[in-house]
Design goal:
The protein is mainly α and about 450 residues long. The protein is built from 19 helices and two strands.
Length: about 450
């Protein structure tokens, strides 16, 4: 009579969570998820609108005080659970059944952000195509008001990210990120050199680095906090999922520090490009998403050889958006495959198709459809901007707060510290400070900041 196989000899099923091949792969993939349009497009736009260097200081403060500590909380929970975000909370605390809705909430945020984020990436691809057309003045408003033209690019974009994610974590997502991240930094440096050579750029550099707190608004702190959460993927299931892929040989505090430094560096470098560029052209700061696109076209479109630099920046925007969308699709599909009977490939196709269809209203919300373009909610105009505010700002901050409360009060900071101390002797020196912050000060301050989000 044959004996049943022991657990260590059992073949992994299609629902067995994958693992990183190396620390570099984990860091580059997680950094690729974090580095996106939020760094290259959204951050410079917010800096221009909220006092330049004053907002920069607020943002850096939010990264240090909330971004990195909450990232550690999510990663530790993810690795301890070793499963999809929907099951993570019950896995570490079986009696905490109601907390699984926080996992569901985080997965919904990832899906919702993917739906409108991919549309913005498609608009960016349209700008890449139009960068070499010197016969007409191309504006953000012109491109976004042509949804039929952009729809073909959106389909191509989804085909690319679906193909990449279907290759699997190691052969698809991890390998792609290792190549893309270094290329992104090189292109940014080239553009900084070019923009700084233009007259008037120094005034923009001063505006970017010199704080002027008189230009801050009552809701600037909330905007800086939500930008930090959005940029570091806090509260959208990414860190919970990628933490579950990490082995006990990995130092989570060290990896989280590297990811934070890479992500913040890209945002800072983007400011060194866009803010000086706005002063070169004299662009108004309150253009919203159109600021970056219109500013760069004003500078480079009529300059000899400018089409190259114009296309170059839009290419890095598209690449950064691509890495984020790949991660969001990967996270959402792993969550679906690990909680249903669907295979990973079928889950990728299902999530991709659903996100594509869900993104159509955003595609038509910048001039393509009057109802979607004119709709307003909570001070935001247009379906895409409303989605960004609800899911990419309020939703992520609220979900991050809930995860912090779970780690601090339900699972317990003692267990989280045990998880974070693995392969991380330096963390042991600050573990008490981190635990106190997660349990007390971080939730209290985040709640206070949330109260200011509707102040203009």
């Amino acid at each position: 009579m044959s004996t049943p196989p022991t657990p260590d000899r059992e073949k992994p099923t299609s629902h067995t969570p994958p693992h990183w091949r190396s620390r570099l792969g984990f860091i580059m993939t997680a950094a690729g998820a974090a580095v996106g349009l939020g760094n290259l497009q959204r951050f410079p736009q917010l800096v221009a609108e909220h006092g330049g260097g004053a907002f920069l200081l607020l943002y850096l403060g939010c990264i240090v005080c909330f971004g990195l500590p909450l990232m550690l909380a999510e990663l530790s929970l993810g690795r301890a659970a070793g499963t999809a975000p929907i099951r993570s909370f019950e896995k570490v605390v079986p009696k905490a059944t109601y907390w699984r809705y926080v996992g569901i909430f985080s997965a919904l945020i990832a899906f919702a952000v993917l739906s409108y984020y991919a549309v913005i990436c498609a608009w960016t691809l349209a700008f890449v195509m139009k960068s070499f057309d010197t016969t007409q003045t191309v504006t953000y408003e012109l491109v976004t008001s042509q949804p039929q033209y952009v729809l073909a690019l959106l389909l191509a974009f989804y085909a690319l990210i679906t193909w990449t994610v279907s290759k699997g974590l190691n052969e698809g997502v991890e390998k792609f990120s290792k190549f893309v991240m270094p290329a992104l930094f090189i292109i940014q440096i080239l553009l900084i050199i070019k923009v700084w050579s233009l007259p008037g750029s120094f005034d923009g550099l001063v505006y970017y680095l010199k704080p002027d707190f008189s230009k801050l608004r009552p809701n600037s702190l909330f905007i800086a906090l939500s930008q930090a959460f959005f940029s570091l993927c806090i509260g959208e299931a990414v860190l919970l999922t990628y933490g579950s892929f990490s082995s006990k040989k990995e130092s989570l505090p060290l990896s989280a520090s590297y990811i934070t430094i890479l992500d913040t560096s890209v945002a800072f470098l983007a400011g060194l490009i866009i803010i000086p560029a706005t002063h070169v052209t004299g662009q108004e700061a309150d253009q919203g998403m159109g600021l970056i696109y219109n500013t760069l076209f004003s500078i480079f479109q009529k300059m000899e050889g400018g089409s190259f630099f114009l296309a170059l920046y839009f290419i890095i925007l598209a690449i950064a958006g691509l890495t984020t969308c790949i991660t969001l699709l990967d996270v959402a599909s792993h969550g679906l495959s690990q909680t249903t009977s669907l295979s990973q490939r079928k889950s990728v196709l299902c999530i991709s198709l659903a996100a594509l269809l869900s993104g159509i209203p955003s595609l038509y919300s910048k001039g393509g459809h009057s109802g979607l373009s004119e709709m307003t909610l909570l001070g935001k105009k247009g379906f895409c901007d409303i989605m960004d505010f609800l899911w990419g700002s309020v939703g992520m901050v609220c979900c991050g707060l809930l995860i912090t409360l779970f780690v601090g009060w339900v699972w317990g900071t003692k267990k989280a510290v045990e998880e974070l101390s693995v392969q991380a002797p330096l963390f042991q020196k600050i573990e008490k400070v981190w635990a106190w912050h997660i349990r007390w000060t971080a939730p209290a301050i985040i709640l206070s900041i949330l109260a200011t989000m509707f102040w203009i």
